[in-house]
Structures are given as C-alpha cells and as structure tokens.
Amino acid sequence: MTERYGTKPTIAAGASLLSRCLLILLIAGCARQPTLTHLPPDAVILAFGDSLTYGNGVPPNQSYPAVLAELTGRKVVRSGVPGEVSKDGLKRLDKVLADVKPGLVILCHGGNDVLRRMNPTQTEANLKEMIRRIRAHGAQVALLAVPKIGLFPEAWDYYERIEDEMQVPVEYDILSDLESDATMKSDRVHFNSAGYRKLAEATRAMLQEAGAL
Known about the structure:
The chain is of the alpha/beta class. It folds into 2 domains: 2-32; 44-210, SGNH hydrolase (Rossmann fold). It has helices spanning 11-32, 51-54, 64-72, 86-100, 111-115, 120-136, 158-166, 174-179, 193-210, and strands at residues 44-49, 75-80, 104-108, 140-144, 170-171. Helix 7 links the parallel strand 4 and strand 5. The relative contact order is 0.16. The chain has a 5-stranded parallel β-sheet with strand order 2-1-3-4-5, sandwiched between helices. 49% of the residues lie in helices and 11% in strands. It contains 9 helices and 5 strands, in the order αβααβαβααβαβαα.
C-alpha cells in the first residue's frame, strides 16, 4: 500500500481511514469494559479488605462502606481487617461470604502485601482466587486497585490482567490519587473523612458505569 511510503492520500481516503481507526478504537474500548448486573434495592454489598475498608483514622460511620451505603441506598457490610495480607484475607473469605450472602463484593486487598514487600505474583494469585470464590458463592465482584509505593503511585500491572482475563470492573485511580494527596489523609497510609468519602464516590461511579446501579 503506497500510502505507507509517503504517498499523500486523498482527503476522502484519509477521512475514511480515520473513521475506520476511530471505529476500531471505539469497539476495542467497549469490548474491554467489563459489566455488572443491576443490583436490586434490597441487594447486599460486601466491602472486603484491610484497614482501608475498615476505615482506620475515622469513626465507623465515616468509613467508605458506610458512605457508600448512604450514596447507593443499598446495605453495605464492612469487612475490613487492619494489617491483613491477601493470603489471610483469602483464608477468611469463604466464611464471610456464607454469613453475609452478598450480591456484590467490592474487593480492596493487597495493600499490606505492598507495604511488606511481598511477591506481587502471589498477591495477584490470591486476588484471582478470591474472585473465583466470590463468584462460586453467586456474587458479582469489582476491584479497587491498590497502588505501588512511589513518588507518583499507580496501580499494579496485574490489575489489567485480572480485568481482561476475568472480566472484573476495576477502579484504577482513586487509591493512587488519595495516597498522593496529604489533605485527604489521617496518617501516612490511611484517609480522613474527606478521603474516605471520595473513595466511596469513586466506587459508586465505577458501579454506575459498570451497570450495577
């Protein structure tokens, strides 16, 4: 095709090529976005994780699960264990699922794995197994991406693999943004009430975009 070697395309040909490229990008973007089934008003959401789910730094009614319940009008059960690593979260997950019987689980785990410099390959494997167990209990699942440690935190690469391989909605940016903003934090790691509210708002937006709300 001579166009690749410098032949100037006609305006019509260029417009046609541009239209095809935009269509391909649009289709690819739509295909990549996992979706959730709409939650009925009486559905139970389980927030499962560590200290960020527990709400270290604020009273229980200001934790992100409590604010999420307010924003969504659904019952949200908070199941966060401060200091817990993902392998221990995996061990307790089945009992929590059996007790709560959620329609949807918001999984926010692995932060303590990062702080303890644990193998990210194992964290990825633990998260995938959590997702499999959640689905085996009949619940849907969405993820909050835990960031790497650094001057400009960003989500671990394995979240993209999990999203693509297991078709799980992922909120990539909110934890990275909050961890980079001292005005949103109560200490080096945890958030204040404003930070947890922003976390709940971003979680609600993800669920709305995915179709759960």
